Write a sequence for this structure.
């Protein structure tokens, strides 16, 4: 076992010893999960106290340098609230909000069955099966937006930006950009100018996942077993998620050439959620999604240059070209 | 002349190939190796083109700022360039300074037909720059 694994094991043992319901249990099969882009994840089983008791768990901790800076306490509270909904979300178990015991802010949650494949919609399955999967992903997005967030008490956890959701999100990501940019980026300033003057009021306020993609969906066969990664979730405009999944940069993850277009996705979403989607409203959120991607790359670059991340992120030509093409089309 | 920059970078990438064949390399080690390879590859593809790119972009930016900055603040018009033309670091620094001026122009442009024309011109410049940036 590496020094890092040993250190994590000892921290986990100490932390769990202080939690309710862990008497007589032990940690088994601790191992690091594949490289997560924004979290440091460890997998293990909590075994005991009965001879057949074995609970698969995942420890999600803040890394030194990720693409996004989010609150574990908020993610924990959102997931805990969603346990009362019908959405397939992982069960959270414990939280170390400050990282006092686990080294960095962390949450522990149930490891749900299934596997993630971010390219599954364009993977090895026959086209009819891939389209059916894409449709089920679209329906799940509509289910997320249909969640009764007031009834679940999510307004105690998340800010309700009301009809100013677009400007609220733009302001947030501009703040991230200003905090993390290493140099002037007039490409992004031009995008902010475009977005600020064209923001439209939200017609509804819903729970927005904000990183909705097949790579965050667990599948057992063709059945969705869990929707993961709620760290960016917030209240806002439903078109935010719809813009994220229909943006050109993500086409390979969400759309199937000639079989499942952005128009197909929007039409099915409209039928499922009951919200007519105007092209210019959606376009704003598509441009915003590309802008947000660029800002995340800027944050990643700062983390890399400061030695907090080993991933050499940078605002890429593809993202900047897509963004500039979108805002200079008028 | 030898080893040239290209020869040294090619050599470094070849040495990484050797390391990649090691059986005991962990998954984490392989990921780091992939990132090192990506970075060196980018440097190899772009180092020689950076000085001419920045030189050209500086000239285009100066022209663009002379036309658009007066709409916002005449103080944003760049001063005469005294950058040594063969000093790659100085030329890159000048490029960053001119781009900072352009950012200030973008954020201050008025909502007028002249302002919109300047936005369009700046957008065209930035699209061309992204398409031709060798880095």
């Amino acid at each position: 076992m590496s020094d890092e694994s040993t250190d994590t094991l000892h921290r986990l043992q100490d932390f769990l010893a202080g939690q309710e319901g862990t008497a007589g249990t032990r940690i088994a099969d601790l191992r690091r999960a594949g490289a997560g882009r924004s979290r440091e994840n460890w997998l293990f089983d909590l075994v005991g106290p009965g001879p057949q008791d074995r609970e698969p768990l995942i420890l999600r901790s803040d890394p030194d340098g990720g693409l996004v800076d989010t609150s574990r306490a908020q993610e924990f509270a959102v997931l805990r609230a969603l346990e009362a909904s019908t959405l397939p979300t992982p069960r959270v178990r414990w939280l170390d909000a400050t990282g006092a015991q686990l080294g960095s802010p962390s949450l522990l949650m149930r490891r749900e069955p299934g596997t993630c494949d971010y390219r599954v919609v364009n993977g090895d399955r026959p086209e009819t099966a891939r389209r059916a999967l894409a449709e089920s992903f679209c329906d799940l997005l509509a289910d997320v937006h249909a969640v009764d967030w007031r009834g679940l008490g999510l307004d105690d956890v998340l800010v309700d930006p009301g009809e100013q959701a677009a400007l609220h999100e733009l302001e947030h990501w501009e703040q991230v950009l200003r905090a993390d940019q290493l140099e002037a980026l007039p490409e992004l300033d031009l995008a902010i100018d475009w977005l600020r003057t064209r923001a439209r009021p939200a017609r509804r306020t819903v729970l927005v996942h904000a990183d909705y993609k097949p790579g965050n969906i667990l599948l057992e066969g063709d059945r969705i077993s869990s929707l993961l990664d709620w760290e960016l979730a917030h209240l806002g405009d439903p078109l935010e998620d719809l813009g994220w999944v229909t943006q050109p940069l993500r086409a390979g993850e969400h759309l199937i050439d000639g079989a499942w277009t952005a128009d197909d996705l929007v039409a099915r979403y409209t039928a499922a959620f009951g919200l007519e989607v105007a092209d210019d409203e959606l376009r704003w959120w598509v441009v915003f999604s590309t802008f947000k991607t660029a800002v995340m790359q800027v944050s990643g670059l700062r983390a890399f240059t400061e030695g907090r991340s080993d991933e050499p992120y940078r605002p890429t030509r593809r993202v900047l070209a897509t963004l500039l093409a979108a805002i200079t089309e008028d | 002349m030898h080893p040239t920059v290209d020869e040294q970078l090619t050599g470094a990438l070849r040495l990484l190939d050797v390391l990649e064949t090691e059986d005991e390399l962990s998954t984490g080690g392989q990921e780091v190796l992939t990132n090192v390879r990506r970075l060196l590859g980018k440097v190899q593809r772009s180092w020689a083109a950076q000085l001419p790119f920045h030189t050209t972009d500086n000239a285009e930016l100066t022209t663009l700022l002379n036309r658009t900055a007066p709409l916002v603040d005449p103080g944003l018009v760049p001063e005469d360039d005294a950058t040594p033309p063969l000093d790659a670091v100085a030329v890159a620094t000048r490029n960053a300074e001119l781009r900072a001026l352009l950012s200030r122009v973008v954020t201050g442009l008025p909502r007028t037909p002249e302002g919109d024309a300047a936005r369009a011109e700046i957008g065209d410049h930035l699209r061309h720059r992204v398409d031709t940036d060798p880095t």
In short: Chain B touches chain A at residues 27-28, 31-32, 35, 38-39, 96, 99-100, 102-103, 106-107, 109, 111, 119-120, 122-124, 126-127, 130-131, 133 (CB under 8 Å). Chain B has one domain: 5-132. The radius of gyration of chain B is 21 Å. Helices of chain B lie at 5-20, 27-68, 88-108, 113-132.
